[in-house]
Design brief:
The structure is a single chain. This protein is an alpha/beta fold. It contains six helices and seven strands, in the order αααβββαβαβββα. The chain has one domain: Glutaredoxin. 40% of the residues lie in helices and 18% in strands.
């Protein structure tokens, strides 16, 4: 075996060992999420929003389905209907989803800037074990509440992709659907939410 072949085998072995270790320890989601967070910072994944949308334009959007029951991390039941009249940031995510993990720091920053009586946040985990989502949220130090479904998901929110984010305006119209990760911690997006009140 020549020197170059031996060097290549060692490089492949080390790379394979690192990848295998990441998968066996479950750290691959965190690592891939970290890499994708860098991609988010480029602005390529920003949701397409029209900041100056008028209420007439917004009224052309479909009505949101508020028929959804949720359970929060404290075990309390929350009806989406209770949020009617507020702008709702509704994100479907999972702890095992690297793009979901990548967008969480930006969502948490936006949450801290926008939380209040006029904007509600539904961070809906689709993890099979809801405790994983609760533990993830605590471990990362995120301030937003996490939820799981207490019943069925209305068909208008069914998506083959996660993360998927829905924005509902204060009049109950579905103002935005964004499939895939997004950088929501931008001034443009915050202005978009403010204009939906």
């Amino acid at each position: 075996m020549n020197k170059k072949t031996k060097k290549n085998l060692i490089e492949y072995g080390v790379t394979g060992t690192i990848i295998l270790t990441l998968f066996l320890t479950g750290l691959h989601t965190e690592v891939f999420g970290f890499v994708q967070r860098g991609i988010l910072k480029t602005g390529l994944m920003d949701p397409d929003v029209e900041v100056n949308a008028t209420s007439t334009e917004q009224s052309k959007n479909p009505k949101a389905d508020f028929n959804m029951s949720l359970i929060n991390s404290k075990g309390e039941r929350v009806e989406m209907e209770e949020l009617r009249g507020k702008v709702i940031f509704f994100n479907i995510w999972a702890t095992w989803c690297p793009p979901c993990v990548a967008e969480m720091p930006g969502i948490n920053n936006m949450y801290n800037d926008m939380k209040g009586d006029d904007v509600a946040f539904i961070m809906l985990s689709v993890d099979n074990d809801f405790q994983k989502a609760i533990d993830f949220n605590k471990r990362k130090g995120y301030d937003f509440e996490v939820y799981k479904l207490a019943g069925g998901l209305p068909s208008m929110y069914a998506s083959q992709a996660i993360p998927t984010t829905y924005i509902i305006d204060a009049q109950g119209n579905l103002a935005l659907t964004h499939k895939g990760m997004g950088d929501y911690d931008s001034e443009e997006f915050k202005e978009f939410l403010t204009n939906l009140k």
